[in-house]
Amino acid sequence: MALANLVVVGQYIPMKTFIHNMDSRIKLTIAMFFLIFIFMVGGLDVLGFLFVLVMIFAFLAKVPFMHLVRGLRPILFLILITVIIQVFVTKGDPAFELWGIVVSKQGLLYAARIVIRLVTLVSVSVVLTFSTSPLELTFAMESFMSPLRLVGFPVSEVALMMSIALRFIPTLLSEADKIVKAQSSRGADFGTGGLIARAKAFIPVIIPLFVSSFRRAEELAQAMESRCFVTGAKRGRLHVVTIKWYDWVVLFVLLVMLVALYLYARI
Amino acid sequence: MQIEVKNLTHVYDIGMPFEYTALDDVSVAIESGKITGIIGSTGSGKSTLIQHFNALLSPTSGTVLVDGEDVNEKKYDKKILRQKIGMVFQYPESQLFGETVEKDIAFGPSKMGLNADEIKERVKESISLLGISYDDYKDRSPFNLSGGEKRKIAIAGILALRPEVLVLDEPTAGLDPVARTNLLNLILSYKKDGKTLVMVSHDMDEVSGVADNVIVMNQSKIIYSGDTGEAFSQPAMLRSAGLDVPMLSVIAELLRKKEFDIPRRTWDAPNLARKIVEELKK
User: DSSP letters along A34-90, please?
Assistant: First the structure.
């Protein structure tokens, strides 16, 4: 349980919100535009606007506030370090003095920029994975990669591999959790000792986990083959997804907004 | 060892959309020197409850007392607790990792800081308790054994800690009838040494045959806790928990009323049949 809580980015919660119902290809496109734009614009006002926009998406998808915060926790350290470095190293007009070090206005500006960028970046991926099932996501990636088929790239196989990998993350996490508990019952100690001692302590977890993954892989392969799966064969779909008019509307409105924002930022 | 649970509540994934209360204000005491069976349908909270016995989970609220001490106190030594209360998980064979059977069983004792001779002694003792020859098996890889043998080795790995309380989660699941009978006999003989046992099971015949006391769980609550015979004489209570009265114990009960001498420890049909034949011959 403790282990499973670590992974928040990538946790899909099935719900029936407008964002959940949108086409995954459109959502992925929008997310990518966001990611590109975050690095194209630099003004605090524009970045702030992008952040608010992402928060609106999060609100529409009914992402719980705590879920967003938990998603940010892994990069908290990164944010802290970059902020400290930016604030103390950047030279410019002095804003105030702290412990004998002059903090510049530029330093504060850079730091604020980085915080907003990173937070927005993570929020985009949390909202995307929160509202889009792994299956839909790989479908979107598969359709984006499909031109590569022309040069003989096994697009469907790669997409299948991705969806299987995503599908088994929670399974392996709960398995790891169970093995950690079982070995703790036998006196294993994971929390103390130096780095090497800690790494060694995980051998009794890693080996059983490997063994069971191989077993699972074999069982899955057999189950797929017994349902007539053949590598390279053309596959149909159970759910045919189409991009609806409102998907286009959202994409269009958003693109107009982003382009306007870009032009505004350049003036 | 006295295990007592007071007003224990356990909630998984607090604050998440799939928040789930697995234990809801549960209180129960485990009688020492007895076998306690825990029964209930899947998702009724059995596994969550037993994981609290050796502090693998920490309660959302409530307390777990072992010999009167709160095991979730910061200064309480959980490592010692886990040696004293041995936990055999469901499908314990999935925790095997040693290169050889001997090394795998020795993992627990070596973590206790015993010397090499003592460790060897314990490995020998626990493996022979399970009816496996030490000399034939010690150098084999646990991964090359059969399913039943793997499970025995995994259980031996726990027994090597010489726990005073042995907690088993579905120990006979997926075993063939012979292996199952062996394992249940081991459980009974472990009790003879004055040890306390707790056994989670789906098999009503097994529980009615082996357990002295029974805890019946339904929807995260304990709806019955007490004598096994009495529990199985309350079919309405069992059915409300999604369980059924074991056919064998119904038959055995009826025969006892007809003054047949059927001992309580009869958990499989062949044994019961043999007893009936013996009685009829008298």
Answer: HHHHHHH---HHHHHHHHHHHHHHHHHTT--HHHHHHHHGGGHHHHHHHHHHHHHH-
